[in-house]
Amino acid sequence: MSGEVTEPPYRRIAADIRRRVVEGELSPGDRVPSTRRLAEQWGVALATATRALMELRLEGYVETRPRVGTVVAPHRPASRPVQRPQPRPEPQPHHNPRPRHAANRTAATPSPRPVERATPEDPDPNSDPNPDPDPDPDAELTRERVVRAAIEIADTEGLAALSMRGVAARLGVAAMSPYRHVGGKAQLVSLMADTAYGECGYPATPPPGWRARLELGARTLWRLHRRHPWLAHLSPLGRPPLLPNLLAHGEWLLGALEGHGLDVVTMMDIHVLVFAHVQGMAVTLEREAQAQAATGRTDDEWMATQQPTLSALAASGRYPAFSRTLGGLRDGDYDLDLDALFEFGLTALLDGLTPLVERTGLR
What we know:
Layout: H1 9-22, H2 35-42, H3 46-59, E1 62-65, E2 69-72, H4 143-157, H5 164-171, H6 185-197, H7 210-227, H8 244-257, H9 264-295, H10 299-305, H11 307-315, H12 320-328, H13 338-362
Antiparallel strand pairs: 1-2
Helix pairs in contact: 1-3, 2-3, 3-5, 4-5, 4-6, 6-8, 7-8, 7-9, 7-13, 8-9, 9-13
């Protein structure tokens, strides 16, 4: 029978990435494989891959950046080993350390027991008789920590990668520990969304004018969806999550439309249109991040590989408007700037609403 101990899979994954960092294969700022990619490459569960990355974060080798993922840390400490609980040694039979000829000991003969170090025969009265080498992380677990860990996973890996086991692995606790604070994934996602929507508020004194107030509301929602792309994938517009912090944004938008003579149905329609513009733009954010993680290519790099197909379609003569538009672009390149496109769409939306709101207000 072999006495060899197999190292856990998450430690093997961590060791491989650690080696690549130390040998310079991965440089500071480089992305490391996502949990989903690691799970596929190593044939392990997402929770196992998450735990491997968590170990590397604790050691200072990697760090998490929102909307980017896990990257090699810029300045890794020379030594930051993870402290793991060590098994306490089995008690040994009592042995009297006193030599049989203590009277013959001279000043030149060192004591077999240094006075600076306590032993079981000479304990420090102020010390803990049963020191814990590593505090139990479960004891410090709170609902807020569970929710924040889940948000970090969703921000970097997407909502589909979120699981209760993955959250437990990120926190370094037992798989069932988060259930003491959250009933399950559905409740966890609701708590995550409410927390995320509550990260940005509004001034006590609104800016003058309905349009300025709607612009501020739309831009605030866009900033939150930019920060947390998974928010756009929570639910369809017809089934919005009834969350206090989300309703606070709706309150701001509806408040901007009060006093202009609009009926309540029109007010609700405008409110939904503004939110739909934010959600419609934001829904691509997470998909873009996932596509880049899956292919290892940026949008520009992917488009470069499609150039032959694009040129062939333009030259076919079946799409004349498309061909003329493509030919008018400088160097044939179109820079899809989502922030600029969001502002362009918001301006067009509010320009279209202006006659309705202001003409109604004059009645």
